[in-house]
Prior knowledge:
This protein is an all-alpha fold and 76 residues long. Helix content is 68%, strand content 0%.
Amino acid sequence: MQKKLTLTIDEEVYEGLRQVVGPRKxxxxxxxxxxxxxxxxxxxxxxxxxxxxCVRESEAMEWAETTCGDVRYEEI
Length: 76
């Protein structure tokens, strides 16, 4: 669900937003900038979901094992 919000900004900033972002895209631009600062995600739930993905975990393990093998032959 979306809510309407009225912001007051300097005219120069507004014109810059219209020119750079576009007149019909300002709301999305501002939301994308603000979201990471005000919406907190449950990282543990995300990690649990990733761990439950057996295909992804198998590919990650294969990649990790391959990478470790590469390090073995590097000169110090």
